[in-house]
Amino acid sequence: MQDATTRIRKERIMWPKASEKSWKQLDEDLEIILETSLQGSVVRKLTTLTTLIYSVGRERFELEEGVARKEPPKPNRRRI
User: What's the whole-model pTM score?
Assistant: First the structure.
């Protein structure tokens, strides 16, 4: 498991509106990919699922142009 200090924030994807037809194509393509790649333990399946959805979404849709990301929060010195 990752804690707050080791998490790396990924770039945000500009997902299409819910009414757009590109969702249906994405769903069909992900279904085919996931049927062939989801094997093994539950943890491995969840990791594969999230990685594939992000990767395919990033390839098909644009990334959001946003404000520069801050560094992850540092642990509170009082709790150390």
Answer: 0.61
